[in-house]
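Reviewers of the previous submission asked for a worked example of the structure-prediction workflow described in the proposal, so we include one complete record here. The input consisted solely of the amino acid sequence. No template or homolog information was supplied to the procedure at any stage.
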Amino acid sequence: MPSGLIRKLNAMKPGAPSNAKTELSPLVHRVFRTKADDRLFSISPTALRRLGYLGRSFDIRRALFLDTETTGLSSGAGTVAFLTGLGYIDGGDFVVEQFMMPSYAHEGMMLEKIAGIMKSFDSVVHFNGRSFDMPLLESRFTLNRMRDRWKYLEPLDLLYPARRLWKLRLISCRLSNIEEKELGIARENDIPGAEVPERYFSFLKSGDMSLLEDVISHNRQDIVTLSLLLVRLLEDFGQPEDVKEVADQYSIAKTLEKQGEIEQARRMYQIAAAPKPVMSVKGLINEKYAGEASFRLFHLHRRNQAYDKAEEVLLSMIKRRQMGSIPKIELCKLYEHKLKRIPEAVKIADELLACCREEDRQALEKRRARLEMKNKKLTDKT
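From that input alone, the workflow returned the following structure tokens.
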């Protein structure tokens, strides 16, 4: 072996043998305790199902609330959850435990702590955790050769029911926006999520813990907000008749219809469609969703072969000038195919032709010609 290489290898050897292991500094561990909302202890199974929980049972005392802060927004192998917040019920309190690794070498230690808490729970409540937090944590357990310590928890992701309920009205269903607009929580000096990774990288270089204090506070508030959001969503989906906003009433009705609760959906469409004063821009927006609710109500009546009720809904829509020419077109079809009131269908077709768009004219003229033939046959018979 060349003498130069031997010298380099010898230089890499320790000066003296030692059996001592390098000691890692302790994990950053924070505990926050507050009184739990009493409504968490009386969860309606029906409301829980409407939120999308598919587990066999749900016990709030065995539900873990989880949120992570990470070194990036992707779920690739290079992304690490450097801070994990875990919330749970302890007696009458809501407890938040947070574990943060002061270096990458601490990841296994942090995962061990998380695993120790997860084993006591059956379900997990998160916000977009189905797509991000849980797959990321599971992959980190695997990469750290701790796959046997990972425990599957039945998921309840609050992002999806929140979107179904508020998307039409809030547009943005980011947790911070929901906090402010629906839960009345106004954070002060909160750190933007996009800045979190850079704060951690700066901490790794400097060791300055003050860089992460607002990140830890941000994470803790996210966990507390999850518990409050769960309560609010359970209330709105459990007692939808008490929801005040027309857009939300309509959104819940669509969710109930999709989940097969047709009678409850019909009731909610009726509530959303009820006439209300149009005195502002918000009133105009409400009338728009009232029109859409009426149209879904019409479809439910027609599907149920309640054609008289379907006609009543369409006539109301026409009177309120909802959804343009659509209610007249549907009424024309209803008179022709279901109620067999051909002369009235002809009259509506003439009204539509008198003010239709050019691109709709050909289809209306075809319908008008067919109705005229049917009407002639009726006249000939009499």
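Residues 213-238 form the longest helix (26 residues). We consider this example representative of the routine output the project will generate in years two and three.
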